[in-house]
Design goal:
- The complex is a heterodimer of chains A (about 350) and B (about 550).
- Chain A has 8 helices and 12 strands.
- Chain A has about 350 residues and is α+β, with helices and mostly antiparallel strands.
- Chain A folds into 3 domains: about 80 residues, no CATH class; about 25 residues, no CATH class; about 140 residues, Rieske [2Fe-2S] iron-sulphur domain (Rieske Iron-sulfur Protein, 3-layer Sandwich).
- Among the domains of chain B are: about 35 residues, no CATH class; about 90 residues, no CATH class.
- Chain B is about 60% helix and about 5% strand.
- Chain B is built from 20 helices and 11 strands.
- The longest helix of chain B has about 40 residues.
- Classes of the chains: A alpha+beta (about 350), B mainly alpha (about 550).
- Chains A and B meet through helix 1, helix 4, strand 1 and helix 8 of A and helix 6, helix 8, helix 9, strand 5 and helix 11 of B.
- Strand 1 of chain A pairs antiparallel with strand 5 of chain B, so a sheet runs across the interface.
Amino acid sequence: MSDIEKSYSPGLATDIEKPIANPGIEPHRIRMTDKSEKHARTAEKQIAVMFGVSVVGAIIAIWGFFAFPIVDGDLAATRNNSLWMGLGMALSMFGIGFGAVHWAKTLMPDNEVSEMRHQARSSDETRAQALEIVKLADGESGFSRRKLIRRSMYGALAFFPIPAIIIFGDLGPVVGDTLKHTMWKPGTRLTKDPTGIPIKASDVTIGSVFHVIPEGLSEMEEHKLEEKAKAAVLLVRVNPSDLNEDPAKADWSYQGIVAYSKICTHVGCPVALYEQHTHHLLCPCHQSTFDLANHCEVVFGPASRPLPQLPIAVDAEGYLIAQSDFLEPVGPSFWDIRK
Amino acid sequence: MTSTTETSATDAKPGFAGGAANYLDERLSVSAVLKGFGRKVFPDHWSFMLGEVALYSFVILVLSGTFLTFFYQPSMAEVHYDGSYAPLKGAQMSIAYASSLDISFDIRGGLIMRQVHHWAALLFVAAAGLHMLRVFFTGAFRKPRELNWVVGFLLFLMGMGAGFTGYSLPDDLLSGNGLRIIDGMIKGIPVIGTAFSSGFFGGEFPGTEVVARLYSLHIMILPALIIVLIGVHLMMVIIHKHTHYSGPGRTDDNVVGYPLMPVYVAKAGGFFFLVFGVVAAIAATFTINPIWNYGPYDPSPVSAGTQPDWYIGWLDGALRLAPSGWDISIFDYVIPMGVMVPLIVSLLFLALVAAYPFIENWVTKDKREHHVLDRPRNAPTRTAIGAAGVTFYAVLWAGASTDLIATNFQMSLNQVLVAMQIMLLIGPGIAYFVTKRACIALQNKDREVVLHGRETGRVVRLPHGEYIEVHETVDKYELWKLIDYKDYQPVLARPDANGKIGLGNRLRSAVSKIYFEDRIAPVSKAEYELAHADHAPEAVTEKPKRKQKSINA
């Protein structure tokens, strides 16, 4: 057991006598560069060459900057610029790095030396002195004695940081009902994402998929992405006989055309993949899978709620329109989603 | 400093270096600093360089990141792109994305710096993680270094945070989907979720604020915290002095290695340039995060096979492996467990990692300082726990690639995912068992070598006809490595002064049993002498020559 260990409890450690005493550091092995001045000089030259190579690398990097100016539309210029500056810098670094390490390994002494450690614990004397200082400071300030001062100070210290938290109150607006409503209103036309061209029911053939945004979204100047993040819809037409429709929602579709929110109810990724023969919708982020033919119920993956359905109809000109907004919130679940 | 005194003693006119040193010493007492630290001894081992790699990657990150701040603009205002990347000309995008494209295509050296920055970030977290594993598996976290383990743990978390905030800055489609996932997770937190989401994004997702806020986190708050923590981390290394592996001449009282000046200044200084060189070479030749391929962020499109940077993978995997349909309803309120289970599980995992030194110390009750590292085999239970933890992390991490595994290996996505879920539950147990048995087997092998020497594979026939295999004794330096480790035994729960056995006592006794019940104790003097008694001439030799063999029956 060592000196440092002696003063502490070993706990569950056993005390087994070692078969042999610690033999001490292994004898030093002499290197060629220690024995022969010729080898040392060779190493010296090698190191100088490496440092020289570093200078060459730096010059290559500088050359790369000037030799490949940016040419609009020409990716080769960018690629060459990046490649030669990078390789030049790498060579420059390697030269210094290998040079320094080679220097240390061949010419600097490689005898291992031993240095004593000290316990982290201060000596008893030092600890007593430190304690003395604390007591002295306590007595001089009356910190322990004057309870009124001490307690009122705790109070002040507890309260002063609160404004620093409150001051961040305007980081974001108070959440109202915004999460529960989207841009869809009765009569809003379903349009293609991202062009905003309205979709005719007759254009939607069986098996086809449309990525849909509400009419007017593509022309929005403000809050376009926020609205899109809630209102994006996936429009699919399936054979009406394949649809297992809830009688209460029977008029939400039009001749096998159904519209469901594209925002995953797990954590909000776009559910962008549609598998035609199974009628499954798959979210590429975490693989939640929804059965389009069966109210978009979750058939696999971490999502818990079905994708909300957008009730649709057809207007006089044959364009698809929304009957209303979604009747439930879209996207990830949250605490008061049902309120 | 010797040069200063020498020159001033022998020469009336000191050179420039001597003059400068004198100037500084008279104002800052630099001589005392150099006297104290100049010959400080550091032990040498390849595994001690992992932490160095992390440190140097951070320096590279600060250097390349500073360059990027001169050109990047953290604004989400919309513009029409007019840079030299033809495929996106005229596209509507945020200024953040446009300026990231400009850094890549319109600023000479911009692309290489972006790539250096991204590669260095990947390396930083990887090196920090491997360094943590080294510290764990060698028991370097034991007293007096428990607090430094916690500091290192915080550094690893900060590294992940800095990585994620930086990754989101270009405001491209891929990173935008990452933020969308963060938004979904925040919203799922009971009671405060939606308010926090609104506070983070400045309103509804994605809003126009978040990039600027991530920028301030990424270039100010997180780097400042990392720098402070690195300072504390290294200061503690100086206070404790570095650990060393068990070996001849190494004890808990000393540190064996090479002096800082000149050897470590040259080796570690040179190593910084080597790390930088490797990062620069990779950045020059391998594309990372080609944001121009993804396009600007838009909440509607997404590409199949989306993947976060590697160090976020385990959290994304946790989200994928989460069970479905566990949502809890309290009155009319909802707790979405698809989000909360991964969140709670990953936080618990992190808490266990942070607390491990204290847990192990609670079991061993060993209050001594430990400066000689354990070989992983000599702490079988710790090593097995580590292997179980690594497996848990690895399954979560692989879980983030279920779709790619399924498509590349032509398997069913659903089956891959279910297999991962099963692996997550049983994998750590298997890893624990296998690792523990492997450690114990290796310890047994070490005992054999100590007691009977090393098998040479040479079979000889003795004059009386018996066949034996020749065993070669190991020299005393080798021997020391095999016998110098600490050994613990399980403790029985004993009644206290009141004659009662407390719950804590019982628990500790049970855990100590798990830890040390099937331990292999190091060879004792008595065993060693017994084993060598029947063939006395083969005492431990100073330097075994090839022909000097010990023969064991």
